[in-house]
Amino acid sequence: MSRTDTLFRPVDLGKLSLKNRIVMAPMTRTFSPGNIPNDLVVDYYRRRAEGGVGLIITEGTCIDHPAASGYPNVPSFYGEEALAGWKRVVDAVHAAGGKIAPQLWHVGGIRRPGVNPGGATPGHSPSGMARPGKVTGHAMTQQDIDDVVAGFAKAAADAKRIGFDAIELHGAHGYLIDQFFWEGTNQREDGYNGDLAARSRFALEIVRAVRAAVGPDFPIIFRFSQWKQQDYSARLCETPEALGAFLTPLAEAGVDIFHCSTRRFWEPEFEGSDLNLAGWARKLTGKPAITVGSVGLNADFLPDDGTADFREAQPASIDNLLERAERDEFDLVAVGRALIANPDWANQVQAGNFAHLAAYEKEMLHKLH
Question: What is the pLDDT of residues 282-299, one digit of tens each?
Answer without folding.
Answer: 999 999 999 999 999 988
